[in-house]
């Protein structure tokens, strides 16, 4: 039978914790990793409604996108709202796991699910997340047992890891030359005499953050008093990881029709779906960002898309964005603003599929359909196309 730890391993493989922002709180919030799992519930928010649903269906694990304890706390007393949820989960035997900004930047991640819901063929990330910076170290070792010793020392210090492989290296044969000077204590040869030695050239990659440790390991393990080595900074590698996605519709459609497409694809909310731009503007290439996407507005402009779909856009940035599009050059993208919860809800099905695949269908995985968007009431008259025309005439 699958355990909480098994499900967590699958989710962290899909949404690596290293992708989480440094301010974020992801991973296991409460629960015993060794406990068996028969039912899992996936939801956007860890709130009373989803905790209650998890208890109703007998779920041993609740997986959410948003963290419960994002900011540091000194206790989880049951007399506080969040502490009460933790106690309820523990009493009900339900573990809580969160994948937040790591799921935002994963490939596929939150924005891939949003893009798929809208019928977009994804081209790549909107804001690419750079892969960890890499160096390459190249050194020259006399033929013999020292080669293994140096190789093992570099590997232990963090060099030679490529994907799921360790101790990766390339070696080639050559001839080294040196002449020890006064004061030297050569391991091979003698002072004042030119030496030529059969050597192996050893090359290994390493995380740039481990540079000091790898160089120290080389100096400690190398038989030469002054080992020769090259340390090269490798070029940044393009990545499919990152915030948001850019994609393309099967064919262009006017903004008003695209806005209807978005509304039909996402669960209904009091917030609804609203767009900013010419209603008849053709939309084909689209950027999306699940959750609050203000920070990626500049990237959406730079990508040259026709529209940008996200949540929580503010009045002034949106107004200034539209104003910028009235100048010379390509118009800025139309904006389509949706409810934060609705933009991230498609991810729940993606995460559920991750768990199903990892547990071979032996775990009952369900997606919560309870609306946990905080906005619950909408009222007032909605702007229509005729209203817009009338207001324009009055202006």
List keywords for this structure.
single chain, 395 residues, alpha/beta, Udp-n-acetylmuramoylalanyl-d-glutamate--2,6- Diaminopimelate Ligase, Chain: A, domain 1, 3 domains, six-stranded mixed beta sheet, 15 strands, 26% strand, disordered C terminus, DUF34/NIF3_bac, hydrolase activity, metal-binding, metal ion binding, N-reg_PII/ATP_PRibTrfase_C
Helix content: 25-40%
The CATH superfamily of the largest domain bears the name NIF3 (NGG1p interacting factor 3)-like
Radius of gyration: 28 Å
- Give the mean pLDDT: 93
Shape designation: globular
Distance between the termini: 68 Å
The CATH first-level class of the largest domain comes to Alpha Beta
Say what the CATH topology of the largest domain is.
Udp-n-acetylmuramoylalanyl-d-glutamate--2,6- Diaminopimelate Ligase, Chain: A, domain 1
Low-confidence stretches: 391-395
Structural domain count: 3
- What is the strand arrangement across the widest sheet? 5-10-12-13-14-11
Quaternary class = single chain
Instruction: List SSEs in N-to-C order.
Output: HEEHEHEHHEEHEEHEEHEEHEHEHHEH
Number of helices: 13
- Quickly give the CATH architecture of the largest domain: 3-Layer(aba) Sandwich
Going by helix content, strand content and strand pairing, the class is: alpha/beta
Count of individual beta strands? 15
Biggest pleated-sheet summary: 6 strands, mixed
Strand content: 25-35%
């Amino acid at each position: 039978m699958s355990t909480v730890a098994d499900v967590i391993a699958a989710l962290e493989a899909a949404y690596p914790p290293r992708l989480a922002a440094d301010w974020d709180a992801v991973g296991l919030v409460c629960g015993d990793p060794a406990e068996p799992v028969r039912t899992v519930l996936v939801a956007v928010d860890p709130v009373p409604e989803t905790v209650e649903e998890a208890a109703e269906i007998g779920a041993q694990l609740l997986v959410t996108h948003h963290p419960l304890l994002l900011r540091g706390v000194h206790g989880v007393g049951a007399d506080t709202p969040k502490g009460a949820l933790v106690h309820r989960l523990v009493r009900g035997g339900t573990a809580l796991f969160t994948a937040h900004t790591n799921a935002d930047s994963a490939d596929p991640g939150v924005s891939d699910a949003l893009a798929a819901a809208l019928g977009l063929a994804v081209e790549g990330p909107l804001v690419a997340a750079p892969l960890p910076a890499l160096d390459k170290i190249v050194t020259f070792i006399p033929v013999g047992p020292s080669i293994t010793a140096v190789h093992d020392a570099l590997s232990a210090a963090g060099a030679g890891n490529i994907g799921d492989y360790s101790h990766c290296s390339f070696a080639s044969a050559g001839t080294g030359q040196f002449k020890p000077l006064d004061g030297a204590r050569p391991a091979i040869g003698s002072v004042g005499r030119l030496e030529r030695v059969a050597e192996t050239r050893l090359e290994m990659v390493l995380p740039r953050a481990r540079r000091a440790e790898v160089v120290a390991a080389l100096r400690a393990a190398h038989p030469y008093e002054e080992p020769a080595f090259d340390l090269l900074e490798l070029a940044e590698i393009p990545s499919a990881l990152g915030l948001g996605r850019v994609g393309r519709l099967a064919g262009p459609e006017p903004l008003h029709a695209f806005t209807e497409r978005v509304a039909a694809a996402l669960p209904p909310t009091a917030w609804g779906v609203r767009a900013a731009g010419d209603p008849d503007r053709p939309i084909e290439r689209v950027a999306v960002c699940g959750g609050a996407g203000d920070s990626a507005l500049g990237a959406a402009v730079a990508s040259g898309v026709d529209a940008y779909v996200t949540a929580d856009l503010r009045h002034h940035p949106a107004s200034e964005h539209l104003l910028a599009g009235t100048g010379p050059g390509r118009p800025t993208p139309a904006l389509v603003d949706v409810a934060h919860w609705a933009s991230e809800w498609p991810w729940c099905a993606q995460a559920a599929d991750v768990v199903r695949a990892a547990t071979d269908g032996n775990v009952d995985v369900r997606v919560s359909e309870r609306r946990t968007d905080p906005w619950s009431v909408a009222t007032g008259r909605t702007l229509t196309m005729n209203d817009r025309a009338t207001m324009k005439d009055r202006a």
